[in-house]
Structures are given as C-alpha cells and as structure tokens.
Prior knowledge:
mainly alpha
Amino acid sequence: MESMAGRLEIVSAERIRAELERLVISPWPRRGLELMVHTGVADIVLPELSALVSTVDEHHRHKDVYQHTLTVLDQAIDLETDADGPVPGPDFILRFAALMHDVGKPATRRFESNGTVSFHHHELVGAKLTRKRMKALRFDKATIDAVSELVALHLRFHGYGEAKWTDSAVRRYVADAGELLERLHRLTRADCTTRNKRKAAYLSAAYDDLEERIAALRAQEELDAIRPDLDGDQIMEILGLRPSKAVKMARDYLLDLRMEQGPLGEEVAREALLRGGHRMSSADRRGVSKHSKNAGTRLPKRRRVSVVLPLTTVELAFRQYARFLRRYTITYAERLVFVAPSNANDDRGRRPLPSRAEATRRRLAEQARRDGEGTIPKTSASSTPSAPKADFTQLHGSQAGPRRAQEAAARSTHKHPRC
C-alpha cells in the first residue's frame, strides 16, 4: 500500500469520497484510519488527519492529539442510538465531525512562556479546514454545513461549569445548534477523554445540568421554533414600513428581546418596539427611518441625460452646448426635456448670423472709421455690384476671402495709405 499510495492521485474525488464514507460508517473505522496514516494513504486522501501525528509533544506538555481524535471517534460511536433514537447509528455526520474536530490544532499550537501549550480558536480554524477538505472530496452542501458547524461548536460548552449560564445563554446555545443539537450533545460528551476521573465526573455532571435546563426551557417556551412575538406584517403596520431591510432589523431587535426575556406577548412587544428605538444600534435606526413610509419622498439616483438636437441646429449650437451636454446630470424626479430651436429666429430673440457679404461690409466700415476716410456703402447679394467690386470679382472670383475683398475695395475707393 505504501508503494501504491501515490496512484490515488489519478482516482476521481467522487470515488475517494465514496470509499471514505464506507470506512467511516463501518463497525471499526479506527483500524482503517490507522492503516491509512501508517501507509501514507491519508497524506493524499485526508492530509488533515496525518498532520495530527506531527503534533505529538516530546515533553508531554499536552495530550497526543492524534490518539485523542481516534478515542473521540470511538466514544462518539458508542453514544449513537438505535433506529428510534435521536441519532441513529451509523451516523456519518457525527463520526466525521469527531474525526475532524481537532484538525485546527496543528496550525494554532503555541508554547507559552509559563510552560503551557495553547490552541486558541482551533475550533474555528478546524471548521474552515473541514469545509475546504469536504468540498475537495465533492460532498454535498448540506453535509458540509452540518459537519463544519459541529466542529465550530464543539467547544461552546466549555466554561459552563465555571460560571452558570443565564437562560438567554442557554437559548442561544440551542438556537445556534438548531437541528444539530442532539449530535452536538454527543460530540461534546465524546470529547472528554481525560484520565482524571474527578474532572471527567465534573464535566459529565455539568453537561447533565445543561441538558436538564434545555429540556425545562423547551417545555416552557417551545424552544424548537423560537420566533419574535410580532410577525413581519405586524411590524410593518406598527412602524409604517414597506417591505425592506428595515423590517428585518426590527424583527431581529424583537428576537433579541425574546432571547433575553422570554415570551413577551403581543402588547408588550408592541410597546417595546415603539419605545425601544434608543436600544437599537445607530445603523438600525438609520435603516428604519430610511425605509419608513413617512420619511419623505426619496429622490431617484442620478441619471445621465441624452439630448438629440435637430440636424438643422447642430452647427449653430455646437460651441454653446457641447460641454454642457457632456457633463450635465440631473437629480429631479422627472427627466428634463431640452427643446432646441428649430431655426435661427427662436423665441429667445436671437438674431440670425450675418452673411459673408454683411460681415465683410461691417469690417470694412470699421476699418474706414478708424482711418478717418469715411464709410463704405452697404452691399448685399441683391444690389448691383459697383465697377471696382466687379473688377475684383472677375480677378479673384466670388469665393475670395474677406481680407482680399477688404484690400481690393480699399484700393478701388481711395488711395492706399502707402502711396
């Protein structure tokens, strides 16, 4: 098996998953897992299990994590029930959670200065590693979520005996476990592998007390389906909300009150919802006021305006509107409609642009005024051209530029200043 272990790399993940499931739900899975680690097969199939072997401490400052994991698996199997019980065996989810519950310890092991060893938050790291490995082996999403959640919650009980939990803490423990509560009971009990009989008896008695409290609260409040005292429709009616995230914020607020104080009743919950705004977080208050029906009219998002001008006015208005059209945006409730002038004589009182002849006449008149030589008579396309103008046209053509026209007209009407 050692020489052929590398050939597993060409085997599909689905086939490996199927064989692993058969091994875990077998009557004696520990023997098969030890063989996998010994032959190197686990390095390819389940490397997180092989990594536990390297956490053995030579100075025995902490327990052997690898042997502890296999012992927890055996004890979890012993706690399975028959077909009529809450956890009928063989249960793959419980067994695989027991196998993976401490895979986060190699990455979180720290040797403290006082000679002790710590594995802070190894349950969270282990849950992430478990989820990653199960995804690689193509497990279904429901199984991945269940096993990962059990790994993350397996240390939740520790500390219960040192400080007595409130009813609110017990309710949260049950609510967080959800449908996995019976499996979590068995995983937590199986995780106790200490050889100190006094400590083992203390932990067992503490968990017995926790289970009794859960049973008592369940009988009183039907803890299996904890809900706030007001539903979503009632919350929207009381606060004047539309269906939005603000309704969930208010419902979560009532659910927190339900967890803390137990059943309130509709009237008490209504009063608590109306006067309890100061206890909500600032973000929740902003969300409620933002989505309230009485919060005022909200402006729509900024929208870019696209304006199409008539073809006859594009050349006329290009210099004035080009930059305006590129940058203008609006925040009004309705789109603005731009009406471009259909001709030059629009309702704004604009004058038509002068013709080329009129522009030439104005420039010549201005030049004559400056030179003190008099004015130049008005010319137009319809008037009979003078002889000098006719000569200029014959010489230079009707499309000559304004400067040449100015010089020719000046030469024909009066002497050049340089002469």
